């Protein structure tokens, strides 16, 4: 019980996955802005050998460059959706990683 109370006070809660893993409750506004900024850039502008982002490509880039300490692909998708990004091209004017107005 003491460990649980300490994790509440520090802002870190145990993950459902278990075994000592922890996750932060939220990301800062600066972290979210950087995720959205990077997602809006073509990967080749960052020296990467592909033309567009996927969740599987963006996630390790964000972690390796310490934008976020960790993030699942599922949560990254939610973060991008919150920022106005849509992965489904809904019209000819909407690319896979561009913010789309639906």
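Sequence proposed for the structure above (102 residues):
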């Amino acid at each position: 019980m003491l460990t649980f109370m300490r994790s509440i006070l520090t802002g870190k809660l145990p993950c459902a996955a278990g075994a000592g893993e922890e996750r932060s409750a939220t990301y800062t506004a600066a972290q979210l802005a950087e995720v959205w900024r990077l997602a809006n850039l073509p990967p080749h502008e960052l020296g990467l050998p592909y033309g567009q982002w996927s969740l599987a490509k963006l996630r390790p880039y964000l972690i390796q460059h310490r934008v976020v300490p960790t993030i699942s692909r599922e949560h990254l998708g939610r973060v991008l959706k919150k920022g106005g990004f849509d992965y489904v091209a809904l019209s000819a004017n909407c690319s896979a990683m561009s913010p789309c107005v639906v």
